[in-house]
Every structure is written in structure tokens, then in C-alpha cells.
Amino acid sequence: MNTPRVVLPITWKFTKCPPNPQSSLMATTLHEFEIDEELSLTNMERSVQFMKIQLVVDYYLTVSFQSCAKLYRHLTNPPSPHRSTTTKIQYAVSKRWEQDEENGNRKCDVHGVFDTLFCCCARRVGSMFFLCERKDGSPLVVAGPCWPFCTFITLPLICGLSGLVLYFCILSNGAALPKWVAFIYVPLMVITLLSLFMVSCQDPGLMPRVTEQEQDQATNSFLWNEQVGSFRPPDALYCRECQVLIEDYDHLCPWTGTGIGKKNMWAFKAFVVSVNLLCYGSIAIAAYVLLRNVPAVEEAGGGDGSNRKFL
């Protein structure tokens, strides 16, 4: 049985978008339906069919015009990067470095070439590179002045030597050690690498610049530092390599590539402990495997040696 067909020619009428983008577009949008029916349905069926069509059309109209309104507001009033109300933290940086940056004087040595090639997109504060930072300018991921040494010396040593020990002394088919040793050795490698990352890529405790007014409001125990042109607390010291003021500054570690201060001291201690355990553990495993294989080598070559003596 053929279903009767309903012909619904629909005519749309729209008004233009108002000049004010904040006003609603939906309030000025009119749609009318002019329906000419050729049907043999009952009045109830025609009403239900018409209501279904009208609901679907109204839904898609609402969604489409809301999207158009958002797009129109975005195009007419684009967000400006200068509208941010948060001001970035001004860190206590070397005044000489600031003068060199203003004059465009930069070092042309090998270290400067590495910095230009690999840290070109990072914000530089002294000799520190902010790879990722918060809205207020405080760093989430930061690289220190000796980051090439950490990347190309420390990291390959840890991964390369421990990887060789893991493959040849633990995981190989003829290994003298049981496989459960890998469940201790591999987590120790992971902890060492994580602690290295936490030391080298964490804020060591960079101090913001403190002016005379801020120093008067805070406390009178602050001391003046001529190198950065800022007041500092008694436990904060200036790092020549980092060219910044660091809270509870201890030393500069080239193996981790950055200065050691208050905020990364706990990670540095964890790295020192884990890397020593990994180093001595690797030496012990390699020595055990070599000493165990010595008798087998002597037995394999013992017969030839006795024959040579006898002859």
C-alpha cells in the first residue's frame, strides 16, 4: 500500500544581523512556513506531521544561529593578548645581562649556538630558559645554563651503561642472574631518570626582584645585592652561571645542568641516592657475571694449555 505524500514547500525570511554583536540574533529572526498540501490524510495526521517538521526545523535553526552569533562576536571583538590583568613576575636577574639583552650583545661561542638552536622558543631569564610557564610568568619547566652537559653527557651515560647491563647481564638467554633481578633494576633506572628530570627541569627557587618600597613593607632584614639591583633575604645568593638570585642557593651542578636551591634540593638528594645505587648495583652485577664466567673460560681452554706445556 502506497503511503500518501505530503508536499511542504517552506519559505524562510531572515532579518539582517544587528550592529550590536551583544544583542541576540534569535530575537530578530523570523521564520514562516507556507504549506500547500496535496494529501488524503486526516486532519489529525496532518497536524502531527506538521508539528514534527516544525520541531526539527526549530531545533536546527536554534543551534545554527547560536553558532553564528558566537562566530560573529569572535570576529567583531577578537580576544587581545594584552587584555590580561595578571602581570608577570619580574625576577632578580643580572643587570649586566639585562643591558646586553637591550643592546643585542650575545655570546657567539658553542654554548650560545646550542641555546639559539634548541631554546629559541623559550623565554630567557638570565641563563635560565623557561620552556613552559604559568600565566604569572613563574616557570613550570625550566632548563639551566649547563643543560647541554646534562642532555648529551649525563643522560646517555645513565641510559647507555645501565641499558647494556640490563640487556647482557640480566635479560639475555645465557645470563647468570635470575629474571627477577630485572624487577629491581628497571624501577631503579626509572627512579633515577625521574629524579634527574625533577632536578634539571624544576625551578630551583628563583627570587623575584624586590624594590625599596616592597622591602620597607616586608622586613628590614633584607640585604642589598648590587649584581641584580635588588634586595634579597639572607639565605638567597647570586649564581654567576645562572645569572639570577636563587633562594637557599647551594651550588651549580653540571651533571644536572642547573643550580641547586630550595625548590629542587629534595629532588637532587633523591637523584644522588638513586644514581649511586644504580652505579654500584651495575658494577656488582657486571663483576658477578664476569667472575662466574671465568671458570667456564678456563675449562674451555685448559686442555690446549696443558698440551702446549707437555710439548
Write a compact overview of the structure shown.
With 311 residues, the chain is of the alpha+beta class. Helix content is 48%, strand content 12%. The strands form 5 sheets. Strands 3-4-5 form a 3-stranded antiparallel sheet, with no helix packed on it. A two-stranded antiparallel ribbon has the order 1-2.
What does this structure look like?
- The chain has helices at residues 43-76, 95-103, 110-118, 147-171, 182-200, 212-218, 265-310, and strands at 12-13, 30-31, 123-125, 128-133, 139-143, 223-225, 230-232, 236-239, 244-247, 251-253, 258-260.
- With 311 residues, the chain is α+β, with helices and mostly antiparallel strands.
- The protein has a domain at 12-76.
- A hairpin with a 4-residue loop joins β10 (251-253) and β11.
- α4 (147-171) runs antiparallel to α5 (182-200) and α4 packs across α7 (265-310).
- The protein is flat.
- The model is unreliable at 3-41, 80-85 and 305-311 (pLDDT under 50).
